[in-house]
Amino acid sequence: MDQATLVSLDLMDGQRVVNALEESEIKLSVAILMVSSDEDNWTLVLASPDLDHGTKLDAYTTVVRIARPKFHHMLPNIRILPMKDPFIRDLRKRYAKIKDIAGTRVRGQYGKLYIDEGYVYLLR
Domain for residue 39, yes or no? Predict the structure, then answer.
């Protein structure tokens, strides 16, 4: 399977979403741009206790409402996972002691998901 190459535009779009959420009422715990064998496209994976309240639709609606004004084109693919998701828990556990992980590239199995290639924006 061919995978799209991570380009600076992808990184800038992800950072723009992260910045918009961080400037709003949403305090992110995880923001990682990744591609896995399960999906062909790069996806911005987000997790926050602030997004765990309500339904998944509520979480996506909140993210789109905040991030959409920052874009003149489509938002990147976004996946919001609950803080208790095995992927989020494993990712946070493995990198808990690294203070400045922003900009780190990661690969491997985390919980039930495998990251073929990933770029960490933040991990708290």
Answer: yes
Distance CA 42, CA 20 (A): 19
Q: Does the pLDDT of residue 4 top 60, yes or no? A: no
Task: Count the Cβ atoms, other than its own, within 10 Å of residue 87.
Answer: 23
Domain span holding position 53 = 8-123
Residue 3 belongs to some domain of the structure: no
What the block records as the tokens of 63 is 């993210």
pTM for the complete prediction? Answer: 0.89
- For the chain, the domain total comes to 1
21, 66 contact by CB (below 8 A):
yes
What is the end-to-end Cα distance of the chain in Å, rounded?
32
Judged on CB neighbours under 10 Å (0-12, 13-18, 19+), 122 is middle
pLDDT number for residue 39: 73
Q: Give me the CATH number covering residue 96.
A: 3.30.300.90
